[in-house]
Amino acid sequence: MTIDKRWTTIRHSFNPDFIIGLNAFIERCKNYLDSHGKCSCPCKHCGNTVFLKPKHIKDHIIKNGFEPSYTIWRHHGELPQPPEVHNTMDPLRNLLHDIQLEEVPNFEEEGPNDDETMNDMTATGLEDLIDSTQTELYPGSKLSLLEFLAKLTHIKVLNEWTITSFDQLLELLIQSHHLNNTIPKSFYETKKWMRKIGLGYQAIHACKNDYCLFYKEYQDLENCPICNESRWKDERIMGKKVPNKVLRYFPITPRLKRLYSSRYTAKDMTWHATGQCNEEGKMRHPVDGRAWKEIDKRYLDFTREHRNVRLGLAADGFNPFGNMNNPYNMWPVILTTYNTPSWICMKESSLMSTLLISGPKSPGKDVDVYLRPLVDELKILWSEGVVTHDSVTNTYFQMKSNAYLDHKRLSCP
Ligand SMILES: [Zn+2]
Ligand SMILES: [Zn+2]
Q1: How open is the CA angle 20-26-30, to the nearest 5 degrees?
Q2: Cα(206) to centroid(ligand 2), Å
Q3: pLDDT by residue (tens digit) across 75-118?
Q4: 361 alpha carbon to ligand 2 midpoint, in Å?
Q5: What is the pLDDT of residues 331-352, one digit of tens each?
Q6: CA–CA distances in Å: residue 250 to residues 90, 213, 255, 333, 354
Q7: Do both 35 and 169 map to the same domain?
Q8: Which of 151, 175, 197 is at the close of a domain?
Q9: Which residues neighbour ligand 1 (ion) by CB within 5 Å?
C-alpha cells in the first residue's frame, strides 16, 4: 500500500489537501509513540532528531514545513521497499548475493586483519549458505532452511533461551516434523554455520597492566617489554596457555565495505551530499557543522568522492551488570558513519563496535594502548583507502575514510 505523501510538498498550510494529509499523518504518529507518548518530529527544523507529542509535531509541521528529504517514513512505521533483484523476494538470499560480490578481483591485502581468528568466510561456505536459501525445510515448507535457522536463532536471543533449551526444541522439531536431514543438530552447529555470513574479530593479547598489546612488533613476546609481566595466566602450563587479558578487535574495513556491498544500506551512504540543512545557523547533523565544512575545504580530493566514509568515534566505560560495586567493566569503542541521515546513523543498528576490552579492571586512561589496531586501520583508510564494491552502481571504487573523535575520553594520536 502506498501512502499519499504529496501534501508534504505543499507550501501553503491552509491548503485543504495539506490539512487532510497532515491530520492523517498525526493519526499515524499515534501508532508509533514511545513510553513518553512522543515520536520523532519530521519537520524541517527537527529532521527527526527531536521527540515530541503528536500535537506539537502538528504545530511544527505547520510552522516549519515537512522535511523534504524524509521520503521513507522509517520513524513512522514505513519499511523501505526491498529492491527487486535476482527475481526473488527472499531478502536473505539477496544479502548473500551482495556479500558474494564484496570480494574484489585481484585484491592483494585485506588491511591489518589477516589474523587466523577472524574471517572464516570462504567462497564455498557462502555458496553452501546460498544453497540453503533454496533448500526446503521439509517438503512443501514455506521457509527455507536458512530462514528457519535465522529466525529460530533470533527468537533465542530475544528471549534469552539457554543453549540447552534451544537444542531440545531443535531436537523435538527434527523428530516431529521430518525436517531436512542437513539441518544443524545443535545451537553450536547452527552458530558455526551462520557465522559464514558474519565478519569475525581478532583476538589480541594485552599486558596485564595495560602497558602494551602483544601486537605487530610485540606479537611473539612472552613477557611485557615495559613491566615484564607474563603474557599468560600460568606460563608453566604445557600446551595451550591462557592469556591474562584479551582485546577483541572488530576490524572496520570489512564492515565499511559491507555497507556498500548491501544495497539495503549502500543507497543511504551518499545522503550527506544532498541532505544539508539549508536554514542559516541551524545544525541537525554533523554535515551542517563547522568541523565538516573545514574538512571539505581542506581535503578536496577526499570530499569529491561522496562515497568516502565520515566516521564518528566515541568511547566510554560502562558496567554491564548495572551494579557499580561490581568491578567488572567493559570499554566499548563505538563508531558510526555520518554519511547517513540522522535517523539512520544514530540508530543502534548503525553503531559499530570496534573493540571490547574486558577484564576486572577498566583500562582507564590507558585505553590509548588498546586503540592502536584501530588507529593503524584508520591511518590506512585515510591515506590509501580500500577497493570497495558499490552495489548501487555495481562498480568498484577506492573507499577512504576519516574519523571525527569524541575527545571527552580519548587522547588519541
Ligand atoms: Zn519539529
Ligand atoms: Zn606490561
Answers
A1: 145
A2: 8
A3: 888 876 654 444 445 677 777 777 766 654 433 333 333 333 33
A4: 14
A5: 677 888 999 998 888 887 788 8
A6: 28, 15, 9, 10, 5
A7: no
A8: 197
A9: 41, 43, 46, 60
